[in-house]
Amino acid sequence: MAAPKKGRSHGAQSRPGRTLAFILIAMVALTGGMFLSGHTTPRLGIDLAGGTSITLKAKSEPGQKNAVNQTNMNTAVSIIERRVNGLGVTESEVQTQGSDNIIVNIPKGTNEAQAREQVGTTAQLYFRPVITVAAGAPTPKPSASPSGSDKDKATDKATDKATDSSKDKASGSPTPSATPQGRAVTDGLKADSSPSPSASSSASGKPTPSASPTPDAATAALQKKFTDLDCTDKAARSQVTSGVKPEDTAVACGKNSSGQWEKYILGPAEVNGKDVDKAQATINQQTGAWVVNMDFTGGGSKKFAKITSKLSQQQPPMNQFAIVLDGDVVSAPSVSSTLSGSAEISGSFNQQSAQDLANVLSYGALPLSFQEQSVTTVTAALGGEQLHAGLIAGAIGLLLVVIYLVVYYRGLSLIALASLLVSAVLTYVIMTLLGPAIGFALNLPAVCGAIVAIGITADSFIVFFERIRDEIREGRSLRPSVERAWPRARRTILVSDFVSFLAAAVLFVVTVGKVQGFAFTLGLTTVLDVVVVFLFTKPLMTILARKKFFASGHPWSGLDPKRLGAKPPLRRTRRAPGSSVGPVDTKEA
Question: What is the pLDDT of residues 42-52, one digit of tens each?
Answer without folding.
Answer: 887 777 777 78
